[in-house]
Amino acid sequence: MSILALEFMQRALLAAVVTGLAAPAVGTYLVQRRQALMGDGIGHVAVTGVAIGLLTQTSPVLAAVVVAIIASVVVEIVRERGTSGDVALALMFYGGIAGGLLLTGLAGQGANTLNRYLFGSIVTVDDNDLWIVVGLATAVVALSVGLAPRLFAITQDPDFARVAGVNVRAYNMLVSVLAAVTVTVAMRTVGLLLVSALMVVPVATVQQVTRTFRATLLAAMVVGTVASVSGLMVSAYVDVQPGATIVLIALAGFALAWPVGMWSRSRLRRRQPFGHETDAFELDDTHHVVPEDHGHLHGPDCGHLAVRHGDHVDYVHDGHRHAPHGSHYDEH
Question: What whole-number distance in Å separates Cα of residue 141 and Cα of residue 177?
């Protein structure tokens, strides 16, 4: 029998797909706001929510959603009032994990129960958990993609967004709440301790090769889904932890994309050392003499980018533009 015919595997695959779509969608905005570690902080607070669910014998997933949303709202308010975001996240780290461990003990549960949420246990997702995860992830993806122009505006330039009539505070709060929901969605897939990786690593990977925000958002969702599904399948055949496998595959993707990004950025700098908005004919005509020593002469076949400048040709060399003039070079 194929492993895909097993009912628990079908549930796990569906959970992996929706998690892989939702986590990078929100992660794109967190990375843009320089809050890449926010998922970690919320994940620690969600431990308290899981423990409350165990203590009250209700759904740990739903309890974690409620607690994580409350925590994200509190952090956003603290951040608005001038307290450093790092300090707010640190408070979440310490209080969340301590409260979770205390309440788990009071619930009479051991470390094995809590480990299912800390490190993920996607193959044990039951029907109730699955529909909660699918419903929440669908809402996260719909809001992240549907409100992309406004969310991009408040993350890229809040002052401009405010002048343009966008309710910056409300949308900032929405991003924080979406992050909280995503953490609880992903806790059964990769675990609360690794959830931030699935929110950040796919975004960092595609940023190596993409040049627009929309392309980054959509490509990160594709990369996150591929990493989640392939990590689940590898773990099923090799018998290792699915959460750790998913994160390591995502990191392997970044390791492959990073050299490509370095090469692409270097090539772009050589071609446009003065920025894409700059027109060579609009550059200042002033220049100064530099005593450069070259091992070759610039010319049509020298391999450096040639830029026509008035009555002569400049050559782009090591990030600057100069032209041979007699026995020296004129630097522009």
Answer: 13
